């Protein structure tokens, strides 16, 4: 119940309970899509629990629980389950009745069978591929969980509940949506007819504990020396692009770096689905808006970036650059908004530069390539590359300085470059970092913030390969 209350809050009870699932759908599961391992017919205690669930749903009055606290709602439903079990002589012990009551409450005000997975701190991703195919990621590895939905209607109801909680909709006419949970977890939903086997829900969870560089060092994502370098870069207001694939840890690293921002600075974030968890007191969060049913009212990231530049930001943080807003982001970095950060999908730091070039051309087709590259080298100081390794770990594999242009070529220098050495007996990967101690092109910036000696000292701590 604590997880449900944290995600939806007390005010959500009446709104969630006012539109319960039809009892018929609860009592008699519809035929599931073809599956390699079809579920066996319910017998024994499972059949008794299904019958008791249907009887409880027929007796539940959502209006009566509209103003209930989580604790009171749980207690009331437990009493109702026990009462109906006694009336119908359904043989379920106290533990089974309590678990059924929790399941009913989660369906009324939460996300049904996903609630235990959301409360499990060891799970980082939840992927619903159908009523009987719920996968989770633990320790970087995907496994099939024991969570099950009753039928496809149950999956659809949970998906629509997530979307409506952030003012969005998902159905056959609008079959794709990005949303978020109240705790910041990112959600993507895709409905039929685009999803051939039924609605699919993908949830990227975020740790409830504050992620710091010490946490990343403990997990092996960065070394202590690299963490010190990145802290100095954030404190010196270097413009940083964080690159990597899906699930590589880009947002987590950005949250960690943001902790070095001075509390007196005004930060404006622009995101498709708000997921950054900044700790500073002066943060303005902006989020895009999809078009309405008539196809009007859409607000894109580019619109928000342009508007953010009029809001007197000290730093501008764009959650993810994936289109023409890349040009406006470069403009912001080049016009006094030092210390800005953004993420991008790319395989290497060199590829990240090419991706930025391509995205700028999406909105400025007539801009010469050399002019675009000049903007990039003038705006971007550091590019960080993250990778999810085959052993499930997430690691910063490159820290690259953007130096300048030589002819039409962007000159870059890898300050840190991870080199693979082999595999340990437990299956984990081992390697070392090749380190460049060359004087950086932003040395004057480091000196301005009195951090030049700290930068040099941090690099000297790393043993030469």
UniProtKB/TrEMBL annotation:
SUPFAM superfamilies: P-loop containing nucleoside triphosphate hydrolases. Pfam families: T2SSE. InterPro entries: AAA+_ATPase, P-loop_NTPase, T2SS/T4SS_dom, T4SS_GSP_E_ATPase. Residues 1-15 have a biased composition (Low complexity). Residues 236-366 form the AAA+ ATPase domain. It comes from the Bacteria. Signal peptide: none annotated. Residues 1-44 are annotated as: Disordered. One of its GO terms (molecular function) is ATP hydrolysis activity. Belongs to the GSP E family. This is CpaF family protein. It comes from Rhodovastum atsumiense. The lineage of its organism: Bacteria, Pseudomonadati, Pseudomonadota, Alphaproteobacteria, Acetobacterales.
